[in-house]
């Protein structure tokens, strides 16, 4: 932060899009989400991938970590303002991706930037303590805001309700094929997303109600879940059915 030489001496290229990845509770720089999403992007095209490590706070108790999310998000937003001032890269070339608590974190970063980032993607945004929290991810946090819900049941780790522009509910959004635990369902969100960055193959159907989502009865238009398209636009509820294992 505020060290222009650290950016100039890095591999940052303002001509390439920028993706920021934020882990969740108990995560850190070596958490699986980071190499999974990084490799998906770098395996496809030249991209600036920035990993936000907020481990010092994330390894606290869940309520402590959750309460610190807005401040870390604002700090990320201020860093991106600094990045913009040093490199000239516009906010509409930036995509913020966060998992669990990290989803609300990147929402707050987008809010700090006045909703000007091209995309914000929440990967199974954390549920506990967030249902009525004014600091949670919302549709105005970016030009286009997407949430992928994979563990939204009553005892799920994710928030089960629609909170973004477009909300995707893979396999109904509460349990995932091949998973026997809530944590497996939860982690599936970033695995699915990484796969769509590479393949852009998961096509959802729009749903007119949450009942249609849960009964697999959606009849609306097709819309791709995830991917790396900075100009993506859409809104509504969507369901997509996936396989049990990568690439799903």
UniProtKB/TrEMBL annotation:
Q: Which InterPro entries match?
A: AB_hydrolase_fold (IPR029058), Lipase (IPR013818), Lipase_N (IPR033906), TAG_lipase (IPR000734)
Keyword line: Secreted
Q: Name one GO cellular component term.
A: extracellular space
Annotated Lipase domain ranges read 3-220
Q: Identify the domain of life.
A: Eukaryota
The Gene Ontology biological process annotation of the record reads:
lipid catabolic process
Compartments it resides in? Secreted
Q: Name one GO molecular function term.
A: serine hydrolase activity
The UniProt entry's sequence similarity note says: Belongs to the AB hydrolase superfamily. Lipase family.
Protein name stated in the entry: Jg14726 protein
According to its UniProt entry, this protein's organism is Pararge aegeria aegeria
């Amino acid at each position: 932060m505020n060290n222009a030489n650290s950016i100039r001496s890095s591999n940052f290229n303002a001509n390439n899009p920028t993706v920021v990845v934020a882990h969740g509770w108990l995560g850190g720089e070596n958490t699986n989400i980071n190499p999974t999403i990084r490799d998906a992007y770098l395996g496809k095209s030249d991209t600036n991938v920035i990993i936000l490590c907020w481990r010092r706070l994330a390894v606290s108790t869940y309520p402590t970590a959750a309460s610190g999310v807005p401040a870390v998000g604002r700090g990320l937003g201020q860093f991106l303002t600094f990045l913009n001032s040093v490199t000239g890269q516009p906010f509409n070339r930036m995509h913020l991706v966060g998992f669990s608590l990290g989803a609300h974190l990147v929402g707050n970063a987008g809010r700090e930037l006045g909703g000007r980032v091209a995309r914000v993607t929440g990967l199974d945004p954390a549920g506990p303590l967030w249902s009525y929290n004014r600091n949670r991810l919302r549709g105005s946090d970016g030009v286009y805001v997407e949430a992928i819900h994979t563990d939204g049941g009553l005892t799920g780790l994710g928030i089960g309700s629609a909170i973004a522009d477009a909300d995707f509910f893979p396999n109904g959004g509460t349990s995932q094929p091949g998973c026997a635990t809530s944590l497996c369902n939860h982690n599936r969100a970033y695995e699915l997303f990484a796969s769509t960055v590479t393949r852009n193959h998961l096509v959802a159907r729009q749903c007119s109600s949450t009942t249609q989502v849960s009964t697999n009865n959606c009849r609306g238009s097709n819309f791709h879940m995830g991917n790396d398209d900075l100009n993506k636009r859409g809104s509504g509820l969507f369901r997509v059915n996936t396989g049990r294992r990568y690439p799903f």
